[in-house]
Amino acid sequence: MRYHCSLCGNWRVDHTIIDEWNAVIPPPAPELKSIYVDPKSTALLILDMENSICNKHRCIASIPRIKSLLNKARQAGMLVVYSLTHTGNVSDINQQLSPYTTDPIVKSNVDKFYGTDLEDILRKHHIQNVIVTGFAANGAVLHTAVAAAFRGYNVAVPVDGMSAANLYPEQYTAWHLLNSPGSRDRAVLTRTDLISIPSEPPSHVK
Question: DSSP states of the chain as a string?
Fold first, then answer.
């Protein structure tokens, strides 16, 4: 669309992001942080790791990384919360990541706070920090992580513990978490092997 610029006196062409799509250059890769977590005030969220949807290379590759983190959380006695899609069942969760019978499980859309008791569960256990993993990066991980940040939780997302159908949604999710006004002050990106759960932990996620 052409319009007259009252400031410069010239006719200009109004380009939208769609017109300039191919000119976009992605920003530099963000720094991954080493973090130390207090198991008493931190919860590990494992979102929608169901066999029916976690069946492509990138999601399957994330399972051992999440499993390693889950083992550390179990050893430290951390709260572990699982989620399911609307059509999922507990038996659908990947066997390597199977929940204990005592683990809370919520069932919702991509925002796992919506219409569930997730916030009550976290509050009951005096949780201040959440580590968010699962599928899909641009679905449950993104929307639940942002919803947690909105509610005042500190959020850590291990990039090797989230996955999507291809690279771009993962890249976008990482960028969004660190740049959105709703999450940038509370979210950090990390990697599963950069997360330490010490026997005498500090009081918060750094």
Answer: -EEE-TTT-SEEE---TTTTGGG--PPPPPPPPPEE--TTTEEEEEE--BTTT--SHHHHHHHHHHHHHHHHHHHHT-EEEEEE-TT--GGGB-GGGPPPTTS-EEE-SSSTTTTSSHHHHHHHTT--EEEEEEE-IIIIIHHHHHHHHHTT-EEEEEGGGEE-SSHHHHHHHHHHHHHSTTTTTTEEEE-GGGEE--SS--SS--
Q: Using one digit for the tens of pLDDT, what is the confidence trace for 72-112?
A: 999 999 999 999 999 999 999 999 999 999 999 999 999 99
30-196, what's its fold?
Answer: Rossmann fold (3.40.50)
Domain boundaries along the sequence of the chain: 30-196
| In contact, 40 and 199? CB cutoff 8 Å | no
- Structure tokens of 174? 């990482």
Q: Is the pLDDT of residue 143 over 90?
A: yes
- State yes or no: pLDDT of 8 exceeds 70: no
CB-count burial class (<10 Å; 0-12, 13-18, 19+) for 206: middle
The model's pTM: 0.90
**Inter-residue contact 82 to 46 (CB < 8 Å):** yes
What was the pLDDT predicted at 19?
87
The answer to whether 20 and 27 are in contact (CB under 8 A) is: no
